[in-house]
Amino acid sequence: xxxxxxxxxxxxxxxxxxxxxxxxxxxxxxxxxxxxxxxxxxxxxxxxxxxxxxxxxxxxxxxxxxxxxxxxxxxxxxxxxxxxxxxxxxxxxxxxxxxxxxxxxxxxxxxxxxxxxx
Length: 118
Description:
Strand content: under 5%
Radius of gyration: 23 Å
Helix content: 55-70%
Number of strands: 0
Largest sheet: none
Number of helices: 5
């Protein structure tokens, strides 16, 4: 973690526009950082998540790198901690759905029986 702090720098850019070499080098750096930040079980879980939800996995990776650079991580991230982070990201990005039942002019009562509409 000390090595990550010493590297410094801000968050990594999301879009790579300077060619394949830069993108590949950036991916290799991220993979090396993930090796030092995550325990093997957590790394496997993040790999499985990235197969299904790439954006969510990418945001978790960036969050982990920022936490490591700022010194917020004292030890390697376990699978349980990664699951907590994934749930937080999923809860914040999940759309809220509310369903309201329409009232009809013929519906006289508050019950769920629709016999009075026929």
